[in-house]
């Protein structure tokens, strides 16, 4: 995992997921989790982008 990916996972979780997986259900889940709370979005982004 690069430094850029780590920074995107922390500051813009949906963008990090989009760059790795494109548009799909994973991106939608990331957006919903980030709207609910920033921390769930970050955790999801780190898990998805391993």
UniProtKB/TrEMBL annotation:
It is found in: Membrane. The chain crosses the membrane at residues 26-48. It holds the Pfam family Pmp3. The keyword Aminoacyl-tRNA synthetase does not apply. Coiled coil: none annotated. Signal peptide: none annotated. Keywords: Membrane, Transmembrane, Transmembrane helix. Belongs to the UPF0057 (PMP3) family. This is YqaE/Pmp3 family membrane protein. It comes from Sediminicola luteus.
